[in-house]
What does this fold into?
Amino acid sequence: MANSKSAYSVAGKKQRNDTHIIVVWVDNEAGVLARVVGLFSGRGYNIESLAVAEVDQKENISRVTIVTTGTPQVIDQIKLQLKKLVPVHKVADFKREDKNVIFKEMALFKFVAKSEKLIKAFEACKNFNPVVLDETKKSKVIQITALRREIDKMSKNLTKFGLVSVSRTGAVAMTRGSDVFK
Amino acid sequence: MSKLYSGAEIVFKCLEDHNVSHIFGYPGGAVLPIYDELKNFSSIKHILVRHEQGAGHAAEGYARSTGKPGVLLVTSGPGATNAVTALTDAYMDSVPLVCITGQVPTHLIGTDAFQECDTTGITRPCTKHNWLVKDINDLSEIMHKAFEVATTGRPGPVLVDIPKDIQFQKTKYKNYKKVKKLNGKSHDKFTQKNIDELIELISKAKKPIFYTGGGVINSGPKASELLRELVYATGFPITSTLQGLGCFPADDNQFLGMLGMHGTYEANNAMYNCDLMINIGARFDDRITGKIDEFSPKSKKVHIDIDPSSINKNVKVDLPIVGDIKSVLTSTLKNLKKSKKDFSKSNKHQISNWWEKIQKWRSKRSLDYIGSEEIIKPQYAIERLYELTKDRDAYITTEVGQHQMWAAQHYKFNKPNRWMTSGGLGTMGYGLPAAVGVQIAHPKKLVVDIAGEASVLMTMQEMSTAVQYNLPIKIFILNNEYMGMVRQWQELLHDKNYSESYTAALPDFVKMAEAYGCVGIRAKTPEELDDKIIEMLNTDRPVIFDCLVDKQENCFPMIPSGKPHNQMLLGPKDQKAKKITGKGRTLV
It folds into this structure.
């Protein structure tokens, strides 16, 4: 490093990255999502997926679910930095492998094909709670709920049944059992 | 029925409620209703600056020298964007600021109106929180909350953006009610167990060191007193970051000087070799740690900080203690006195080897430089300034660069809140407006901005403010005609390719002072320096002091990039690979 021309120190050892699901309860006010997302982009953290909606109309609370990857140190920082934001009430963090937590994403698939293929398409979805939301002679819109990688796989495999369009949400999470995160 | 107040009146009523006596600002279209109301609130004095950045730094100087929040009032659009540098500076250095900006009327927001900008969007990453007031009924609560957010926990800047129509609308005023908890954000989380563990570590340590920072100063003057008590009660050595200077007396034998990139040899080596590091209110900044993988490899690390996110951010620590430094130190002292009476005496033997080692490092005298009879050495200028002002309880601000580091090394601070410098953001042009703010807060005190000629030109217009309000600030310029720190890096790391770091055309600072209506003094030789400094100190008006110093001098000692603390450059002689010629530049 003798010839380093930087005024800054050099990067240290790389650590392994884990995938975490961070759940944030925030005041539902103007700009709050920008604060949360801006914190991620400003500090160079990743966002793999994002889901936001108001969950308590009386208290005006929204629940933000963020899937992110980072070293244990980065994940800790993300949580601590989020907790510092004024509109943030609480922050939960789950590892993707955590068996005590349910993760789900929803996807809408639009198929355009002949009816035999459309039937096969619905069959292929049957493990993921498929619901037909719209149907014509030539097309079908099917909703499924599944894990991220399952939806990834499905959207690849279903092309042969005439899949023309995919729309999907970010992951949402909930703990199993009677415990509630405080 | 209670009286109705306009938005503009509510702004001032809130300022009164929070005991604000001075605001720094600059009028413009979108804040005119607020300016119109100024005449009706005689307890609040407005200081008219010459640029909104100046308002921000002046408010910072005010805040850092008093411990109270600084307030600035600027208009929409360019007024707000000009304040961004100062807000970011305050954010990095944890300075409580409340910035009030005007905004175009609500019905014009989003239409690219004249002097419209997305102020809350732009300032979101550089404030602790900001608000766009869309309803007059929210205004008083938002203002109160703004002060609360700015001053609680780790302090910092906040911004309240008030559209012009809101400033005219009327509503009832809501008084300030102190809320106990801010959205679940409590700050004193430490437990008795934390303190017990700390005492345990203190009593076992053979090579301990205190590493203290700006957090001690932010915790109030009492925290500095407690720190002194603790340092004396333990007999441990102490080093300080740039921002922490003054919380422990610099002329005390237990003080090892500043640490970090331009810290002393003894401080950095003690950090590298210690077995217990007690970080109090510092944040393991990269200018402190150097190469992070080799940062103090053998030590147990304790980190006391009010901001949980500062802990384990850069350096993993063994004992985190989240809390206000004042309360943590109070509790630590209480427990130490209870469990280990006369600890400093009983422990003296245990750390005597450590002190011997430190004395050895100290004997290198890493801050020494070769003096000169012909030319003023910048270090000499600061030493003389210190000697001639040390009995006057001076307030020192600085710009950013070599002069800043020399000031930190050679000016000895004995009290907190006397040293205002831009550390985190490193804002050139900080010192002059900051001096304006400090002098406003302390009209009778001596306020000196130790400056470089390049930095000071960035906010020179604020001399006009100083003259308007009869602020006898002293701008002490170490003039080497270079952006000195840039030049130093170019010399050491870029094969002396001095790309654009020389200012080929500089103003005549003495004539410039006269043009501003203040006093200009120039010192050219070491012989006349003392007389000139005394002349400056005896002038009860703003002074620009043009001190012509050695143009080639470098700031040493120095930890080069990517190196750990124990591999310092002590000066030209020490870097065998790079031969540097020139008179009087060898290091002692």
Summary: Chain A touches chain B through 30 residues (CB under 8 Å). Chain A has two domains: 18-95, 101-174.
